[in-house]
Recover the amino acids of this structure.
């Protein structure tokens, strides 16, 4: 017979809450993960499995995918970073894991409640809910820092095969979009339809969750153009570039948030080519490769947010030869730019492309960088002409 | 007779460009500043005055308001930071000013062109235009860093009494809004009308310029609620808080950009009370006071962007006594929080309010801070209840 640590009463109480199936009338069908499974039911099964193990006096355990560096793999066939097959077991009876185990179950319990209530919050909101109370009969305060809860949310996502957005947790949002498509948004008890070609100077703010209770219809655009900087997006929007070219114009407004990466993936799934227009510097490259192959820390949701089909339109150092005026527009590359260019030459998903090797070697040789804003030099509307020419000539990096 | 420095040919050529009145057909009436003056005409007069001085062989000069600390004043009657009456003269004949004088005229020339073309850009776009060329007969490259052009843009704004948005220069935008009002946006050759109560989970992205070619109509809301964090804004939006309370719900998404400050001012001008709901920490206070009294570095546009009528709803350390559960939700105040609280006690626009002195002394005594997200602890919808109660009881800080 297994001898439980003192904490077992708390765990049982937390589980008891997590497997409650409250009689709250849901406003809509249950939320599904990307495999079509009901997320609320998954959390209930998760709790019930643990409860049965407690009942049978076995050690409660669950499995999750290992997110350590050795299990982050790049598969050329897939074209993005994902997790390998290595799993890790979380075991309540392992003293070193007991607290974190309880914390994970508490997080599952709270997310189950959010799904039942049909309400969303941020991971900060979740943290304060956990600090407030873990359930009626649990008075222990097991969370003191949010940094404790973040990796456990990932544990749960990777264990269940769901995204945090499916657990009613909002990630930070950032990014803006305009183009010939419509969005139908079922939110806060109201259904709105927005024509994203009628959003004026503002554009449409890309939300955290672009999957649940939201639909993109009448996508009439022919391709997706991603523009690193909001200021350049505004320039192109004012010119009506997306109208003339019939494209979807997106700016991640810097590094792409989960919502922007996901909507680019969804538009690529509809068959739209994806072009990215960034600075030729450490940030511009980083933003591109994050969109294209995903990132290490989000490898566990790689399939949902990476777009390997994406092409890099520019700006590139080869542009210096094609557009003479750019020669006086370069900036001195920083140590960080050069170090990053060197590192990138070591990544297999980058150095398999001869064109990128050439570009990065140019950076290391010339020691300069170039901003996309420079294309406004000759005249403000030149930015659009540059993009048109690049696409027409298929003058991009893979 | 004045002996000109070598640069005078360049200056004359730059001025010649700035006073051109190109025969471009404007799509709409000329842009006006907040006093109703035509901005393009102001730039032409600016150039013509200089040209006449050159013609009369006098030293070209212009006056601007001094933006040094000694000329930044707080007037209790007005309730915001503004510039005093001290002026500074810029003189082309002063060798130490010659280059900057030419640069300022070059900036005026470019902005005049943007207004004539009816196109906008960012200050980065302006910088690259200046680097590209200063005019047909000027081959000198007088700009090497953007940091050189920024203070000169301010010189021009303060000299002419215009905002950079009136010069077709976009400032960085950030911030989101939802509520019962409509926006009519005449942009990029198209006129769109958006009902801001039909913007779903996204809300309306507040643009850089909320004055020119844009109108806010059917403002049916009764007050404005500003919420520091986007995550908390999303929480309240999902609850339909703004519908139930009939308010305009704005998040600056951190520090308030010029566009957000300006739209708050405009809504206050329509008679709507303004309430601000922030963290009780260094950032929360800073964001509040920037909205209310403006900031040192934007004192030259203080009247346009400050809202002295604003009230601070919370969170406050007095809340700890009213809401028992908050006691376990506090965080340790950092050195920065404490230092700032001490500094704030020294500002006349803050320490004139006994309630703020009390609050800040509490911070220094208890050495804790409190986040607005904590109000999601008991239940996610508690945030809205808290705000309702605060407003009902007029329980705010001035």
């Amino acid at each position: 017979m297994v001898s439980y640590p003192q904490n077992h009463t708390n765990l049982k109480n937390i589980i008891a809450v997590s497997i409650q199936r409250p009689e709250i009338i849901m406003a809509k069908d249950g939320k599904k993960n990307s495999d079509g499974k009901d997320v609320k039911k998954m959390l209930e099964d998760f709790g019930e499995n643990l409860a049965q193990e407690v009942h049978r006096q076995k050690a409660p355990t669950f499995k999750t995918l290992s997110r350590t560096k050795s299990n982050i793999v790049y598969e050329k066939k897939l074209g993005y970073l994902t997790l390998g097959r290595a799993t890790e077991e979380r075991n309540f009876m392992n003293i070193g894991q007991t607290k974190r185990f309880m914390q994970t179950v508490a997080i599952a319990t709270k997310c189950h409640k959010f799904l039942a209530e049909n309400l969303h919050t941020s991971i900060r909101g979740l943290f304060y809910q956990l600090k407030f109370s873990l359930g009626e009969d649990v008075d222990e305060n097991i969370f003191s820092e949010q940094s404790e809860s973040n990796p456990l949310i990932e544990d749960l996502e990777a264990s269940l095969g769901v995204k945090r957005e499916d657990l009613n947790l909002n990630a930070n949002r950032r990014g803006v979009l305009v183009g010939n498509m419509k969005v139908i948004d079922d939110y806060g008890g109201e259904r709105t339809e927005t024509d994203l070609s009628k959003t004026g100077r503002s554009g449409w703010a890309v939300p955290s969750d672009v999957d649940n209770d939201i639909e993109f219809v009448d996508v009439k655009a022919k391709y997706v153009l991603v523009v690193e900087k909001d200021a350049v997006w505004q320039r192109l929007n004012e010119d009506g570039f997306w109208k003339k070219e019939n494209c979807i114009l997106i700016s991640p407004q810097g590094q792409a948030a989960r919502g922007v990466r996901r909507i680019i993936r969804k538009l690529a799934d509809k068959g739209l080519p994806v072009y990215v227009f960034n600075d030729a510097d450490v940030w511009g490259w980083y933003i591109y490769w994050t969109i294209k192959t995903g990132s290490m820390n989000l490898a566990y949701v790689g399939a949902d947010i990476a777009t390997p089909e994406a092409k890099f339109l520019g700006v590139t150092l080869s542009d210096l030869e094609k557009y003479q005026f750019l020669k006086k527009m370069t900036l001195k590359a920083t140590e960080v730019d050069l170090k990053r260019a060197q590192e990138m030459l070591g990544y297999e998903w980058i150095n398999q492309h001869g064109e990128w090797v050439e570009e990065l070697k140019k950076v290391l040789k010339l020691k300069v960088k170039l901003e996309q804003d420079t294309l406004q030099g000759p005249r403000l509307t030149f930015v659009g002409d540059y993009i048109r020419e690049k696409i027409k000539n298929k003058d991009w990096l893979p």
User: Anything to note?
Assistant: Chain B touches chain A through 59 residues (CB under 8 Å). The longest strand of chain B covers residues 182-187. The mean pLDDT of chain B is 92.
